[in-house]
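Kindly review this protein for my students:
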Amino acid sequence: MIVACLMYMLMIQSMKSSMVIESTVSVLILIVLIALPISWVILLINKQWKRSFFSFLATILVVCVLGFPLSFLAMESPDGFGKDHPIPDGLECNLPLVDDSCSTAPIDSIDTNNYLVVWNSFQGGVYKYDFYYGPLPAGEVFLRCFEVTENIPLSEDELEESSKVCIDSTKSFTRLVEKKEFHIYEGDWGDYYAARVEVWYRNGTTKQERKLLEKVYRVEGWMR
């Protein structure tokens, strides 16, 4: 029971760290939570009724008394990423547009700055994007994002996969991606910083990759 409590607290502390650490701690938590019922069964088989009952009761109390408050504090505690990476003076940042599900942005095929359009979604740090481009062979379009001042990869563990769209071969300027959702985890709501949003293309046959476009946006992190 004590081990479970300590592991739970470790998970709370890692909730704002990398997803690899968080996943590792979550697996350890799961192992402990599976081991606890097994220990209760063993105690019951050995007819140690009181020890089994008090062990079960203590576990419930720990989860109720510590678990919920710690989870709430973890959700509320900022990670400070935005404050540690302020937007440089004079840097021009595009602002995500407001998505009302019916919104469209004017697109001019001559102005490459309009090829990528990022929209705010239902919460800070949750975005959608449209992407327009000229003729391309069949393949995949996806995003890579970096904090501007230190070139730190953002949402590195999942952004490429979550933003990926498979496209058919195109012969003219067209919309390749429509309102595809993606998340930026670094930072907190209302704590803005500059991110370079890059659009990449992977050829479906050769698997070669090339960057099609990049654009700097003012973003905030999703407080998951």
